[in-house]
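assembly run, all chains below
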Amino acid sequence: MARSHPLLQPYKPTADDPFDVIKATHLLNRAGFGGTPQEIDRVQKMGPAAALEMLFDFPEACADEQSRTDVPDLSSIDDYPKDFRELQKLMVGKTEEERKALRQKLMAANREAVNATASWWIKRMAFGPYPLQEKLTLFWHGHFTTSAKDERQASLIWNQNELHRRMAAGNFRSYVKAISRDPAMLDYLNNSQNRKAHPNENYARELMELFTLGIGNYTEPDIKNAARAFTGWAHDGDDFIFRKFDHDNDKKTFMGQYGNFDGDDIIEIILSREACGNYIAGRFYKFFVNDELPPDLQAAMGDILRDSNYEMRPLLRTIFASKAFYQPSVIGSQIKSPIQLVVGTVRLLNLDMPRERAISGALNQMGQVPLYPPNVKGWPGGHAWINTSTLFVRYNTCVWLAGGSGQFAMMNPKGKFRGMANGPDTGFKPSTGDTAEAVVDQWVLRLIGRPIAPDAREVLINSLGGHPEREDNVRKMVQLIVSMPDYQLC
Amino acid sequence: MQKYLSTRRVFLQKGLSLLAVAPTIPTFLDQTMMALAAPLDQHRVQKPSGKDGKILVVVQLSGGNDGLSTVVPYGDDAYHRARPAIGLDKKEILKIDNYLGLHPNLAPLKKMYDSGEMSIIQGVGYPNPNRSHFRSMDIWHGGDPQKEVITSGWIGRYFDNACTGSDPHVGVSMGGNLPLAMQGDRVTPLSFDRPENYRYNGRDKENYLKLNQGPTSQPTTKPSKIATPVQKKVEPVTASGQLDFLHRTAMDAQVSSDDILRMTQQHRPAGEYPGGEFGNGLRTIAAMIGGGLSTRVYYVSLGGFDTHAGQRGRHDQLMTQLAQGISAFWADMKQQENDDRVLMMSFSEFGRRVEQNASQGTDHGAAAPMFLFGPKLHAGVLSRHPSLTDLDQGDLKYNTDFRNVYASVLQNWLETPSKPILGQQFKPMSILKA
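ok done. output:
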């Protein structure tokens, strides 16, 4: 029986506390990458409950299962199949030697294939059919992290990205079992080298420390014994394999239980712990709602996850519908991640996604390159996004997107710095208006979606120089809005 | 009231009179006001010929520099046996003694060595060396080979522990991304690739400044709060707390941006720096030191040392770049009369395998030499060269832990206890003149 918490009660609009444009904007910011004026208007008219129905209406399926065409396009890469599905086909029926040789050959353009995947993903976040599914995919990418660095194979990275998408709001139990067999993960955390004769504890440690329980909820001997249970879990190319001769079949003691456990048994024991549900619920809350999480609220959320046998939709729906989510102190309190900032700006300004190299150069300087999280802990987020250097890059990137000029670090396909270059003209053409007040209010509403300080509004109005009908004046004013601290928050 | 006036004066001086009425004060002013009765501008920016603060310049050689082709044990037959194709010719070596010499392209550094301004620490490494670039680099940056997840660096923790407040000027890193070594738990130093990009690019700078000064009509900071030095990074979770944090950072960025741009524009180097990021970075550092920025540690990198194939041409070129950059920098320091205040330290994440590989290159190895530069050094060759025949999986065995070098730099040069920074006490070496 789930413990209840007043903040988990659904928010119900009233005359005093209506579902206004601020709340509709908030929902589309946090459950996606921001809404256009039309989307916000639609969501506001639907009301919070119907809006959630719409946001959660995505299939538990990979992108490749959803559409044959909305997948990373690899056709411009020399000597590479046109997409990952073709690549997979090439492997079928080949001997191990032949597959190895093929993989070797593909390594030459590996970085390009990873970049094409990242670039496709960014586009899908901005324009894809299911923003919440992509937002959750991004969440999981930072949770069950794997980086493409060390020349990790692009197809492995792609398969893991698809796993995140398919499991985004699925069953956490199945998800942990699947990620523990995911070749990219087995490679990244060295479980492929975890053998009975020489156990490698890396995966077992992170499984508990970062993926399921959090520090303080297990012991060092638990790690050693969990590592033994995962011995022999390895991969051959894109496939999980169980190397039974490397597996430790002796009995193990784990969290007070004794038996011949394998990896799945370890996962079951971990999931039976109260700490696990609470930990995952806490991760959701901090990513989607707020850093400040009272313990009783966390425990109540953990109950929801356990009571649904680790189905994640009920908890996620509860969170997004809750009074906690719509607290005034929560709205506008989150520092946008670089991806949120860039994808959101492209959406809000109604732009096409600019050339990949300019975008990835900017994201790199802001500290968040998709498919390259800095370490197994993922991106720390919050204040860590902001320092004097990244703040300039964030402002300048948004100014560039809003039709200004901007210089960016250019990386070659191998990720090496190749000097600075001007970003391409994004062709931003703002709508103008009759009065300066109306133009400013309209753009502030559209881009920030919250009230700004009266003197800041005054500055924006004056910046139009009495000519709100001139496109260039409005463009300059929009560039100022995206250079405001308020715009860094959502 | 005095505090406000000081603030106003600084901003007027900087031509940012608009900021004078801002209720939000840049972080560093917040700190310095409390710490000092002296005029503020002297704290943030030292007098150009200031003789007080010591400075550390860290040079990172990324990719794993081949120590054996940098400081060459030419007198050892094992060296020539292991490197038949890529070994350096005995005749070309810049000889230090009858065993050891420098790469022929390091002539400018040999000059510094001969005049007692360069030390070579041989065989530096750590237990159970990791041969992954990333992991080993993280180990050197974090300063703890045992730690799995590293969130702060040894220099960052020096800032946290030894520098009051959270002034980001204490460290400046050349390059777009702040290296982990410089990241503190509390302090986040400045980093930028080049001064001309470290600024706001928008067209309407005047209004941009107004919008980033903090809302005057709805003060987010009570005046009384200004009298409290910022402690551990506050974590506001409300929108107004976050806005306050962003306004502060924006003002830190703006003021440092103006300073740095001015300093680099006024800088007249004593000699020519090599082209490329490394030379540009060193020249900018020299400009900031000359301009009197109150920075304690500067950081610059030279990349491209991952020479698995065709090593000779590439490595020779890198040696030239390294030597030219460092000697141009020191010529500048001498001209500025700042040389006595500066210590430079170079390192790489690992050395390379003793035996050359089949592609005329070398694979990832372990122990390697570090360099120190500066007139205050107890110069010469410190520690012995590791054996070329008693190896660990084909790699040199370390005889000096890098943390002993860090401890020396922290305690003897930066004059701060090293234990809180490195987690345990490592014995400092005598790197400075008595």
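Chain A touches chain B through 59 residues (CB under 8 Å).

The mean pLDDT of chain A is 94.

not gonna interpret more than that til we talk
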